[in-house]
Structures are given as structure tokens and as C-alpha cells.
# Entry
Amino acid sequence: MAIGLEHYLILSALLFSIGLYGALAKRNAIVILMSIELMLNAVNIAMVAFSRYVVPTLLTGQVFVIFIMVVAAAEAAVGLAIIIAIYRYRETIDATKINLMKW
Amino acid sequence: MIGLDIAFWILAVIGIIAALAVVLLNDVFRAALSLVLCFLVVAGIYITLSADFLAAVQVLIYVGAISVLIILAIMLTREVQRGSPANRLQIPAFIVALLFLGGVAFAVLNTPWPVSGAPPLEPTTSALAGLLFGEGGFILPVEIAPVLLLAAILGAIVLVREK
# Structure
């Protein structure tokens, strides 16, 4: 069976689920951020696969991937800056102990 | 086409193993290195999807910049010794991820996708430039993206500045 759209979508769903598990189940804030990057990459694979197999000559999915990458880069920069700022004040990046805004 | 199939399977297996290593390894630094491997595999997947420009951008931005940023953050916070333990939501998180995977796989395999048999556009760089900057393209989002990046840069500087 030749490789088709479904293979790429299943691969994307697998990577997204692994990232989802990591984002929900980890204590270390940096590992949570890494899992979110994993999820964004999985979505990008799905976008490019749709672009390749459904509209091969329009490239709309690839344009969306470029914008997702821009937002992901901004998110990584701000997220890691927040983590470093929290670490400076509280000496921990354990997400279960950072509960200042919890009620 | 058989070469493409073999490349996809190799990349898929390496990518899933690397992604599992990111969430399962206890050493944060090794998890970050597996994340870099996973980013590289995604670049390879883009090549098998004949998205050459995106593969180059993936290597430049993710493998180059974001991984350096993550490793720098790991170095600046001395949580490496503590590893990356799971919180008490480990089993519910696993069930949620499994349910999500099952739902998506069911939807993907049962939807008749309108797959087009046309050959993909190659190379994609000039076509993407026409879409991003040309008439009736995505010029407004292209103008907004730098504002977002500028805001992110300023925010990051303000957040980590010494008082």
C-alpha cells in the first residue's frame, strides 16, 4: 500500500497525542513547553499533508505552516522568558508548585 | 515512489521514538536533545511531502533557534538534577491522550478525503513568495507577523531583565 494522506495524518495524530500526554502529565515547566512544541509540529505535519494531497498546486497549507512557525517562535521566546523569571523569584519551575493564581 | 515509502516509514519510526523519549526520559537535557531529533525528522517528513522551503525553514527555526533557546533555558534553571517527574495526573493524561488518538484515528480512517492526483508543485519557494507577497495573497498576515514578533522580543526582554 502506497503512502497516502492517511499515513501522514495518523503520524501527526500520534505525535500530537504524545505531546498532549507530556503537556498534561509533566511537572517541569520546560518539559511542558517542549511538549507544546511537539504538538505544534504535529499540527504542521497535518497541514503540509493536506496541502500536498488535497490541493497540491495551491500551497495554502504551507502558508499556514509559516504563520504557525512565527507564532510558535514567539510563544517559545515569551514562554521561556516567563519560566526564567519565575525561576528567579521562586527557585523552582515545578508547575505544581507555581500556584500563585490558583484559588 | 518506493524510495519515498521507505523514507516515510524510517522517519515515522524515528520521529515517534524521539517524541516518546521527550516525554518519557527523566533527564531534561536528553529530552531536549530528542526534541531536536524529532524536529529534524519533521523536516525530513516535509521533504517527503515535497515542501522543500518549509524543510529548510524547519531546520533553521526549530533545529537552529528554538532548540538553542530551550537548551539555554534548561541551563539557566538548575532543575536538571530533579529530572522531569510526572505529576499526579499521569494516568488521566494517558487516558485523555489515548482517547484523543483513538478519536482522531477513527475520524481520519472513516472520512473520504477528496485526494487530488495532481503532481505537487516543485520547487515551492517562488510560489510561496507569490502567495505571501503577491496580489490577493496573505500580505496582511505577513504585515501582522512582524508586529507579533516585535512584541514577543520586547516581552521576553522585559521579563528577564534584572530589576
